[in-house]
C-alpha cells in the first residue's frame, strides 16, 4: 500500500489545522468582498476583473511551487550527485513512513532551506550549499524533518494561496483602472472610484499580510515541534537553528536583501542580528521562542 503525506507519522497539529481553516475562510471572504467592491465601482469592467482574478488565482495555485523554486535557484539533484543529502531525506522518509519528495540544492551561501509543493506529487525540499557546508548530519536531518513537515501538514499550499491575495489586489487594481476608468472622465463616479480603489486595495493588502504573518509564525513552531518529535533529537534542531541564525550576521547585506522576499518559505528568516526592528512583522517566531519550545520537548522526551 502506498503511503501518502496525510498518512505519515508526523504528529498531527489540531491548532495548525484550525488556524489554516480560519485563515483560508477569512482570506476567501476578503477576496470575495474585494472583487465585489471592484465590480460595484467599475461596472463596465467586470468581465476583465473576473477573468484576471480567475486566471491569476489558478496560475498561482498550479505554478507557485515552480516559480518559488526557480526564483531561489533550486536545482534538482539525483542520489548520485548528492548522496549525503539524499541519504538524509531517505532516513526522514523512513521515520515518517511517507513518499520521498524531490530533492534540490540552491547554490547560495546563505545557510537555509525551504520546502514547496501543493501535494506529494509536486513536493520539493531544497537546501542551500551554505547550509550543507555548515551543518552536521544530525543537524541537517533536523532541518529536513522541519521542512518536510510543512508539506505533510499541507501548510505550504495554504500559505501560497493566502499570501497571494495581496499580490492579486495590486494586479487587479491596475487592470481595473486601465480598463474601466478614464473612458467616462466626465462621470462623477470615476473620480470616486479613483479614490476608493487604492484605499480598498491597501486595506486588503494590510489585512491579508497580518493574517498570513500570524499563520506563518505558528506553522514554524508547529514544524519545529513535529520535526523534534519525529526524529527524537530536539537538541540537533536547536543546534541547527542557533548556528543558522548566528551565521546570518556574517552574510553580506546585499545577499540578505535578495533572499528577504522569500522569508515566508525559508527555514530561518534572512535577517542579520542588527535588523531587530524589521522583525516586528516577521514571518517567523523569534529564536528564543523556538529554542524554548525545543527545550520543553527535550525535557518531555527525557522524562518519557
UniProtKB/TrEMBL annotation:
Membrane topology: Multi-pass membrane protein
Cofactor(s) demanded: Zn(2+)
Molecular function in Gene Ontology: metallopeptidase activity
Keyword Cell cycle: no
Coiled-coil region: none
Active site: 147
E.C. number: 3.4.24.-
Residues passing through the membrane, by range: 21-39, 45-63, 156-177, 189-211
One family name in Pfam for this protein: Peptidase_M48
Localization in the cell: Cell membrane
Family: Belongs to the peptidase M48B family.
HAMAP family, alphabetized: Pept_M48_protease_HtpX (MF_00188)
Official protein name in the record: Protease HtpX homolog
Organism: Streptomyces prasinus
Amino acid at each position: 500500500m502506498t503511503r501518502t503525506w496525510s498518512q505519515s507519522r508526523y504528529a498531527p497539529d489540531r491548532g495548525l489545522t484550525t488556524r489554516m481553516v480560519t485563515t483560508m475562510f477569512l482570506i476567501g471572504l476578503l477576496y470575495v468582498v474585494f472583487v465585489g467592491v471592484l465590480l460595484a465601482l467599475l461596472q463596465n469592467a467586470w468581465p476583465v476583473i473576473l477573468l484576471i482574478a480567475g486566471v491569476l488565482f489558478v496560475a498561482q495555485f498550479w505554478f507557485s511551487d515552480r516559480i518559488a523554486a526557480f526564483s531561489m535557484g533550486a536545482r534538482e539533484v539525483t542520489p548520485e550527485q548528492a548522496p549525503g543529502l539524499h541519504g538524509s531525506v531517505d532516513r526522514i522518509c523512513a521515520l515518517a513512513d511517507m513518499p520521498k519528495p524531490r530533492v534540490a540544492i540552491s547554490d547560495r551561501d546563505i545557510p537555509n532551506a525551504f520546502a514547496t509543493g501543493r501535494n506529494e506529487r509536486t513536493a520539493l525540499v531544497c537546501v542551500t550549499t551554505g547550509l550543507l557546508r555548515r551543518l552536521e548530519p544530525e543537524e541537517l536531518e533536523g532541518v529536513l524533518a522541519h521542512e518536510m513537515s510543512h508539506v505533510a501538514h499541507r501548510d505550504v499550499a495554504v500559505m501560497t494561496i493566502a499570501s497571494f491575495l495581496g499580490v492579486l489586489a495590486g494586479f487587479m487594481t491596475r487592470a481595473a483602472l486601465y480598463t474601466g476608468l478614464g473612458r467616462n472622465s466626465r462621470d462623477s463616479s470615476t473620480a470616486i472610484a479613483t479614490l476608493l480603489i487604492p484605499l480598498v486595495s491597501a486595506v486588503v493588502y494590510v489585512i491579508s499580510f497580518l493574517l498570513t504573518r500570524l499563520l506563518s509564525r505558528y506553522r514554524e513552531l508547529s514544524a519545529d515541534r513535529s520535526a523534534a518529535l519525529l526524529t527524537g533529537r530536539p537538541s540537533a534542531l536547536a543546534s541547527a537553528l542557533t548556528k543558522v541564525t548566528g551565521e546570518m550576521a556574517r552574510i553580506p547585506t546585499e545577499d540578505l536583501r535578495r533572499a528577504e522576499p522569500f522569508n515566508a518559505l525559508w527555514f530561518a528568516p534572512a535577517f542579520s542580528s542588527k535588523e531587530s526592528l524589521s522583525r516586528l512583522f516577521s514571518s517567523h517566531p523569534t529564536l528564543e521562542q523556538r529554542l524554548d519550545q525545543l527545550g520543553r520537548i527535550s525535557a518531555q522526551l527525557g522524562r518519557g
